[in-house]
C-alpha cells in the first residue's frame, strides 16, 4: 500500500483519521482516560483530556472512549487537519474545569514574535 506522506508513523498502522480533544469544551471527567488509557491523559495544567498517542489503543477502544464523553468533545479528524488543530490549541486560553464557559470570553494567546 502506498503512503501519501500525510500519515504520521503509527507503529506500522496507517489510518486516515486521528483523534482530537476540544479542550475548551472538555470538563475533565476523565472517562476517556479510563477507557483508552494508552491514548488519552489528563493534561496537568488545565485538568483537561489530551491525546498522548494516536496509536495507543485500537480504534474500537478509542471509539468507546469517544462514546463515553458526556460533552462530546472528542472527535475523529482527518490527519491533514490534526496538526493545524494542535497548533491552534497552543494559542487558546483554556478556562479551569468547573467554571462556566463563556465562548465570547475565550480568546487566543499572543504568540511570541
From TrEMBL:
SUPFAM superfamilies: 4Fe-4S ferredoxins. Keywords: Electron transport, Iron, Iron-sulfur, Metal-binding, Transport. Signal peptide: none annotated. InterPro entries: 3Fe4S_ferredoxin. Gene3D superfamilies: 3.30.70.20. GO terms for molecular function: electron transfer activity; iron ion binding; iron-sulfur cluster binding. It comes from the Bacteria. Ferredoxins are iron-sulfur proteins that transfer electrons in a wide variety of metabolic reactions. PANTHER family: CHAPERONE PROTEIN DNAJ C76, CHLOROPLASTIC. This is Ferredoxin. It comes from Pseudocalidococcus azoricus BACA0444.
Amino acid at each position: 500500500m502506498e503512503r501519501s506522506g500525510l500519515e504520521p508513523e503509527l507503529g506500522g498502522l496507517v489510518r486516515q483519521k486521528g483523534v482530537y480533544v476540544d479542550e475548551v469544551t472538555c470538563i475533565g471527567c476523565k472517562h476517556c482516560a479510563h477507557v483508552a488509557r494508552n491514548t488519552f491523559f489528563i493534561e496537568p495544567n488545565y485538568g483537561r483530556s489530551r491525546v498522548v498517542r494516536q496509536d495507543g489503543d485500537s480504534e474500537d477502544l478509542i471509539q468507546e472512549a469517544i462514546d463515553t464523553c458526556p460533552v462530546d468533545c472528542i472527535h475523529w479528524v482527518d490527519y491533514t487537519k490534526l496538526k493545524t488543530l494542535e497548533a491552534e490549541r497552543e494559542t487558546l486560553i483554556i478556562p479551569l474545569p468547573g467554571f462556566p464557559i463563556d465562548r465570547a470570553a475565550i480568546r487566543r494567546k499572543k504568540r511570541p514574535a
